[in-house]
Structure formats: structure tokens, C-alpha cells
Specification:
The protein is α+β, with helices and mostly antiparallel strands. It contains 2 helices and 13 strands; from the N terminus they run H-E-E-E-E-E-E-E-E-E-E-E-E-E-H. The radius of gyration is 24 Å and the shape is globular.
Length: 207
């Protein structure tokens, strides 16, 4: 009887250990991820505000591509956009290698100063390809400064519809931007962990 009790306790401990291990894996996966980062070290934007990066009376818009392999929640966006007037910054779906020209999520920036920051966004994206795009109104005078990433191309448009993709190159660095995902709330992670522990103990009682 004693051996059976000891064996049962050992099995229960094994289930509990497995559940706690699974919980740790869940917590590890809960860390924030970077979806896009074209800034230089320390979130610097070393590029020059050439006409290529203007968001102004010429109605030029700019967009930088990024992708995610799973569903994520965008928590914050940092972009080296500055100017006078209103400019809309947001996320568009990909349409055959170009921005769709329709925002999935967006925010209007008024008289932004680099580096402009959007936080606590809660924008949910499914796995797929996307663009971070900025469109200024006709009266906006400003620019989206180039970053430090020579390995990524970007797109621009003079009418917000017909996008032109610029391949990666040292003379045309992608505009500086940083997109990070949200970290699940501790309470959510703990509930999931407790659920795993409960499931393990429940299986033990049924065996």
C-alpha cells in the first residue's frame, strides 16, 4: 500500500513538473518580438532627408515591408517622421508585393517630431506580409528620415495607389522604423500555467 502511494506521489510530481515546464515554455514564448527595425544603434536615423523621403505637398507616401509567421498583437511603433501638419501612420496588407493602399490600422500624427512613438496599440495581425505606411495630407511638410538598414527595400507613391518598389541599396536606405509586439499580461500567463497544472492533476486522478 505504501509503495503504491509512493508511486502515485511520484507520478503526480512528474505530471506537475511537466506542467510547470510547459508553463515556462509558454512564458518564454510570451516575450515581445521585433517585427521591423530599420533604425541604427540606439534607435538613431542616420539617413538624410532627401526628396526621396519627403511626405509633403507632392503627395508622396512611403511604406516599409515586414512580415510575421504567426498571429501577433502590435504594441508599439517608433518612426523617424517629423514635420508640420497631419500625416497618417499605420499598417496595410500586402497586395502582390505592394501596399494595398487601405489601412488595417492607423493613427493620425499632428506636427510629429522624430522619433514619433505610438504605444499600447493592441493591433492584431494574422500571419502574413504587411507594410508600415505613412501618408501625409496635401498641406503636410515633412519627411520620414532614412534608417541604417541597407538590406531592406521600401516603396513610395505619388498618388497613394501606384506604388514603386525600391530595391535594397546603400543610397536608398529604408525609412527608420521599429515595430514591436505586445507581451501577454502576467495574469493571462499565470492562468494558462495553472490550467496546465490542473490538467495534469486531473489526468492523474482519472488514471
Amino acid at each position: 500500500m505504501k509503495n503504491r502511494s509512493t508511486s502515485g506521489l511520484t507520478a503526480a510530481r512528474s505530471f506537475l513538473a511537466a506542467a510547470m515546464l510547459a508553463s515556462c515554455l509558454v512564458i518564454a514564448e510570451a516575450r515581445a518580438a521585433v517585427l521591423l527595425d530599420t533604425f541604427g544603434p540606439g534607435n538613431t536615423a542616420p539617413g538624410t532627408d532627401l526628396s526621396l523621403y519627403n511626405l509633403d505637398v507632392f503627395n508622396q507616401s512611403l511604406a516599409v515591408p515586414f512580415s510575421t509567421g504567426s498571429q501577433v498583437t502590435v504594441d508599439s511603433i517608433l518612426a523617424a517622421i517629423s514635420g508640420t501638419g497631419d500625416v497618417t501612420l499605420g499598417i496595410m496588407a500586402d497586395a502582390a508585393g505592394s501596399p494595398s493602399s487601405t489601412y488595417l490600422y492607423s493613427a493620425v500624427l499632428t506636427d510629429p517630431t522624430a522619433n514619433v512613438s505610438l504605444t499600447n496599440l493592441g493591433w492584431t495581425l494574422e500571419a502574413g506580409d504587411y507594410w508600415l505606411a505613412a501618408i501625409g495630407v496635401k498641406t503636410f511638410l515633412g519627411a520620414w528620415t532614412g534608417g541604417a538598414d541597407a538590406s531592406m527595400g521600401f516603396a513610395y507613391s505619388a498618388n497613394f495607389v501606384d506604388w514603386i518598389f525600391l530595391a535594397p541599396g546603400s543610397s536608398q536606405l529604408a525609412p527608420a522604423a521599429l515595430i514591436t509586439t505586445a507581451i501577454p499580461e502576467p495574469a493571462t500567463v499565470m492562468l494558462l500555467a495553472l490550467g496546465l497544472v490542473g490538467l495534469a492533476l486531473g489526468r492523474r486522478r482519472l488514471s
